[in-house]
Amino acid sequence: MGHFASTDWHFTDTLTLNLGARYSWERKAVRVSALRANGCNLDTLICATNFADAAKWRGFTPKIGLQWKPDDDTQIYGLYTRGFRSGGYNLRNTDPAVPPGPFNQETQDSFELGAKKQFGRHRINLAAFYNRMKDLQREINLPGPLGVSQVIRNTADATIKGVEAEGQFFFVQPRDFGSARLREWPVSQRPVRPQR
């Protein structure tokens, strides 16, 4: 279930405030039965479960932006947003000894400052960004008696930051030239939390 709202507030003809927000609520319930002899009754389609659980996740994801257009060919902006990915369960796990979960939700806070400029037919975009992610959901391989088991876990926190430059220039005929990007991906490692 989710609720969303968004609006733009024009302070002047050149300055605009962007506001948005979403509230998400999710509940997931699972019943897992390992494949085994006489585990299911094919007549009644009822299986004896060896794992049953339910969990809830909530997320508030706002968006705040400010746009300034000093002239028709220039835009300068700043933006903050939060992203949310709900938690869940590993339902494709092949090792009964590895619990299906749950794994927790993942969140991301994103900040961006940028400018866009039009020079006749030419255009250039510049942006600097900083993304902070918490409880990254990643698929990992776990060794076991039945081989390798692939499960999703909350593995780490991470920060991605950098700058981007993009240009479109026409010299003789309409052709595109110019693009550059620089990013950093420092990741803070921490032990994988045990599943309950």
Q: Characteristics of this structure?
A:
about 200 residues; mainly beta; nine-stranded antiparallel β-sheet; two-stranded antiparallel sheet; elongated
Explain briefly what this protein structure is.
By secondary structure, this protein is mainly β. The chain is 0% helix and 66% strand.
Task: Give an account of the 3D structure.
There is one protein chain. This protein is an all-beta fold and 196 residues long. 0% of the residues lie in helices and 66% in strands. The chain has no helices and 13 strands. It has strands at residues 2-10, 15-32, 40-41, 46-47, 51-71, 74-85, 106-119, 122-134, 137-144, 147-154, 156-168, 179-184, 187-189. The protein is elongated, with a radius of gyration of 24 Å. The mean pLDDT is 85.
- Multimeric state: single chain
Give the averaged pLDDT, no decimals: 85
Number of domains: 1
Structural class: mainly beta
- The number of E-state strands comes to 13
Low-confidence stretches: none
Architecture blueprint of SSEs:
Elements: E1 2-10, E2 15-32, E3 40-41, E4 46-47, E5 51-71, E6 74-85, E7 106-119, E8 122-134, E9 137-144, E10 147-154, E11 156-168, E12 179-184, E13 187-189
Antiparallel strand pairs: 1-2, 2-5, 3-4, 5-6, 6-7, 7-8, 8-11, 9-10, 11-12, 11-13
